[in-house]
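Fill-in record for Cryptochrome/DNA photolyase FAD-binding domain-containing protein.
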Amino acid sequence: MDNYWKNKELEIITLEQMGFEKSGKDFPSIQFNEKIVKTYDKTRDIPSLNGTSRMGVHLRFGTVSIRDLVRRSKSLNQVYINELIWRDFYMMILDQFPRVEKYNFKQKYDKLEWRNNPEEFKAWCEGKTGYHIVDAGMRQLNCSGYMHNRLRMITASFLTKHLLIDWRWGERYFAKKLLDYDLASNSGGWQWSAGTGTDSQPYFRIFNPDSQQKKFDPNYTFIKTWVKDLNTKSYPKPIVEHTFARNRCLETFKKV
């Protein structure tokens, strides 16, 4: 035994020594909340409520099993199960069609003429579009690393259809900010909103931000939480008028 090379026991370095720092962001609990899942179909679209399971970040990092979530929720709420299916569906799409990471699933839209205005993109990123529900969603993302799913659809639709900015710009921004970022779900969701992906909403379906606000945050409960400068002189005017933006979007997509 004396002839074996004797190694000095190596010290296990800490996360701090590797350069990691605590973000201070709220990390959702790993505990499965049956009460929330039971009412998921009724509360999931209301951003001011604690109506979603917040399991996305744990699925992203593998701290919970998708099979375990299905087993626990299959007798509780079919709508919740459907959302888990969407997640695996987008994973299958990315596996079978890896080009969707950077290119449109519907290849005819590769010819789409995006406006890609950098100043308007900056305003969207900072939550300064003048549309309350859009700005609230973006400010929630920037401050917390999380955005409610209904708001992900609203903000993505606004960027791609009101401003005609390439969905890849928004996808990359979400990738930098979301704690639960998942390439398959993120690219799939963005292409769904833009109308360029598989089983996506049609290009002529364009969310009206004001109508979305009246439907899902009628009392401004969520908006007031994140848009502190609401109703002040510093709050920006709408970056674009809805009807004008809608018509411009329709004309652009029809050209393809």
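KEY FINDING: The longest helix spans residues 78-96.
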